[in-house]
Records
---
Amino acid sequence: MSFERENIRRMSGYVSGEQPDDDRTLKLNTNENPYPPSESVTNILREFDPVQLRRYPPPTAARFRELAARLHGVDTDNVIATRGGDELLRLVITTFVDPGQPIGMTNPTYSLYPVLAQIQDCPLVEVDLNDSWQPPSTFAQQMNDAGVKLTLLVNPHAPSGILLDTQEIGNLADELDSILLLDEAYVDFVGQDYDSAELIDKHDNLIILRTLSKGYSLAGLRFGYGLGASSLIEPMLTKTRASYNLDLISQQIAEAALADQTTAGNNWHRVIEERERLRDLLAAIGLPSPASHTNFLLVSAPEGIGAEEIYKKLKERYILVRYFASPRLSDKLRITIGTRSENEQLLAALTEILGNTDPTTA
Ligand SMILES: Cc1ncc(COP(=O)(O)O)c(C=O)c1O
């Protein structure tokens, strides 16, 4: 006999990107930052006194929230700190959506969203993106007509990298009857004027997701945060959040990383520069991709060789990229931007695989 709830028994869990534990593999598959975090993170770890662990950590990460509030020009009660962006998604769903109520999203999108909806036993309302990877003009209407309680939108978009501007986001928040969860996991790599935090004053149905995993090189830490009207933040902060959801070491590291905007900003700049260079070089060998505002590129495989085959051949050469076996994406690969030398290694391998030049006979 199974003790699982029926919806849990029916579902499959989230499939993480491959995480090899050897030093040889070049990992360009899970959008991690190729540069190290701030030196102040190293100092926190070096100087941390374990005696501090006798006590429970600050329950709501108040110092981190104050820092984040200052950074975004909002109040502390507009901020919640969470164990990665993923915990915020889970909190938003369990706080605001009853089992059975529809959750809306675009197709394609971040593959964790459907999994979290299934856990809450909520039907999905999926709307296809248009050919430019943007929501159609009827997106909000379709969500409203379907009675959606929560709309999940990633911007810049994953996996295409395209960006909607804040005007479009504001309009969408206005038109939607539901909460709009704006997932900005990759926003640090936008590379142009973009500040959605100012929208939360005007839209009491908007929650913005941020993470330290990508922009601050701290995917292993598990730290993210949400910004929103205090009426949305307060129930998550005081009722549905796990007590002491963030350990003391994480809180101190996250504070140090966020405070060092110079290191983070330099890393964003380096990733953006490499992204633009790599995009041109990949296009030149037959792998075009839409202009990206993230730390990855979604390249299309050329005629004559499938994306899956390229993925496998790269893997044989100890290079991991992301292949999605879904209808809209099965002819594409998502490639994380590495350092200059990592990207050179990738380009050499792809050139060989695509037969543009054969290094063994060159
Ligand atoms: C679109 C998107 N949103 C949110 C996250 C969550 O990131 P984390 O839980 O590491 O903060 C990710 C991670 O890959 C992501 O790709």
---
Amino acid sequence: MPNMSLNKVVMPEQDPKVRARNFEEVTLGYTEDMAVEEAERCLNCKNKPCVSGCPVGVKIPEFISRVKERDFYGAYEIIKSTNGLPAVCGRVCPQENQCEGKCVRGIKGEPVGIGRLERFVADYVMNGKAAPVEKPVSVSYTHLTLPTILLV
Ligand code: SF4
């Protein structure tokens, strides 16, 4: 069952008294549970109106489906296939006039927080929480003679 809340999951922010004394980002980003809860608001529309609003054609319902499954690295790979700057776009794109402006959930209530989810996925990977890259298998050439090595 989708999450039929009319509002986006609220993103935590620094306390005003704290943020008045630093130059860090005001918004703190979603936790994993918040991201999954927001992703559950997506209806996985067949005609994907949100994608038509994205200048780089991010596969929005597909990446959000991965977030629902807590496959955050899979979501990242889908975003990265068409967008090389997800952490930036998740923060500064005018989503209200692009993807979120076309989201059907915005007809009655707030659209799915596509930008927030994109930011979450990018930050998740940048913070090293994704599956580590597999170490390549080392190859030994010690059993080969010099002429054979030159042919490898
Ligand atoms: S339009 Fe909104 S609800 Fe539909 S697939 Fe896109 S993000 Fe999900």
---
Amino acid sequence: MTRGYHEPVLVAEIQELLVRMPGLYVDGTLGGGGHSLAILKELQRKGYGASSLLIGIDQDECALTAAREKLNPFGEGVVEVKGNFSQIAEIVGRVCGQRSIEASAVGILLDLGVSSAQIDTPERGFSYSHHGPLDMRMDSGSSTSAADVVNAMSQRELASLFFRYGEEPRSRSIARDILDYREKHGPLSRTEELAGIIRKGERRPDRAIKTLSRVFQALRIEVNHELEVLRLALNEAVSLLCPEGRLAVISYHSLEDRMVKAFFADKSRSDWGPKGVGLREPLVKAGYRVVTRKAVSAGEREVSLNPRARSARLRVLEKLDEGE
Ligand SMILES: C[S@@+](CC[C@H](N)C(=O)[O-])C[C@H]1O[C@@H](n2cnc3c(N)ncnc32)[C@H](O)[C@@H]1O
């Protein structure tokens, strides 16, 4: 089987939970356009194609090129925009302004993290399995690469980074090994140098892969400010939803999933005032409801076909109609 740019996960679930009416859809993580294609096909199948618009956003120029090719047949029904989803409200507002339509979305998708194409391209530097520059920028135009982070941070800062964003138990000794390496050999510039330092310091070789994943994940999160931009995007995305509109987020590690879960819980909580007052009605009614009480995961069959799906967790939030 020839592998494409990226195999999207939980496609049937996204079609079912997100595509429920005609209108404006926003894919904040366009990637190779797999989810967008599935949304557009579902809109067509339901007879909503002509009365809908999909705005696809990605910060990676290569992703936009791949998605444009895939989504070309949908013509005016799709707009691809280069940008960061932390500015989703401004981007959607601008596109809708140009088309004189209301910036009010019935479905928004964030499929977080990196694509298979980004991981599998050695020159992007995301993977410990490939030799390449220690880069990890999703937006190649941004200024700070993973090498900049690894070479500029102190031992304490590196240890804290690997612990916070990678939940890496050996964070301190890995940071020390990096400092030793820098002293002996100068700045790091390649993925294989960092992977070599981590492998060398790992007493149990069977644990090396997990350690490598955690450290590379931590650096990627730092380089792309992934948690900061997610926080901004969640707030902006809910402000774009129309009544009954839904926000779907697929996350791949616990730091993201925890943030999404807590954000959804907060948005769907009514304010009942101080404890013990016993109000009949809340002081402030929640404006949203969580559609997925538990995160939706991929089934065994999907995981066997697409191992990336194993860690995927989908959560969906719906904006309530004011009358409810
Ligand atoms: C998991 S892939 C999405 C794959 C896509 N759903 C598909 O079906 O092909 C994540 C994509 O989101 C993009 N991305 C991640 N964070 C972003 C951000 N803050 N703003 C814009 N794009 C982002 C990445 O560049 C990558 O192309």
